[in-house]
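Late entry, evening session. Most of the bench is empty. Finally got around to the prediction I had been postponing all week. Sequence below, unchanged from the version circulated by S.P.
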Amino acid sequence: MIFVNFKTYQQGTGESALSLAKICQEVSQQTGIPIFPVVQAVDVFRLASQGLTVWVQHVDGIDFGPHTGSLLPQAVLSAGVKGTLLNHAEKKLSLMEIKNIMEKFSGKTLICASSLEEGRQLAFLKPDFLAYEPPELIGEQISVSQAQPEVITAFINEIKEIPILVGAGIHQQEDVQKALSLGAKGILVSSDVVLADDPKRELLNLAQGFKKDETI
């Protein structure tokens, strides 16, 4: 599976977010690889109302009440969200904050960990997916699967009950193939796809890494 974090890039905002999400859907249908857009809360309904599967970049651990400026879990779920990304390097949370959000949010969760130690702590919360994404490699040309294969292996060996994804620096088929060979179940990407001159071609290229011996 591939999660594409649109962040707040111009190419992943508003009507551009809708266009990019449709590309994700097209590539997913063409390749058979599940691809999930992870978008800003303001774009959730725009995408979900078009029948697209969509995840949101963050929710807050609140209930109905006086919480001006917060992202209410029930609101994003009613807008059509299927899951949320939590604890990205650009939106770090405490363990207690994550626990509180998960108690309020009934959708699926993908939680980012920047280290094996953090991953061990987060595993106790039993998220649906756990992504290893070292912040120093985010947006770089050296992928985590090439630079830190031993850490990925440690994640796989120690946290067996939760599907592990990897992110940071993923930008070619070989990065995907390496991650999968180590036991990862998928990847988390952003700028490589969102900022690409041809996002569809880039997604197809990454998807090819899931089917090394097949023609897509």
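Two things to note before I forget:
Residues 38 and 55 are 5 Å apart (CA to CA).
Residues 2-208 form a domain with the TIM Barrel fold (CATH 3.20.20.70).
Will write this up properly tomorrow.
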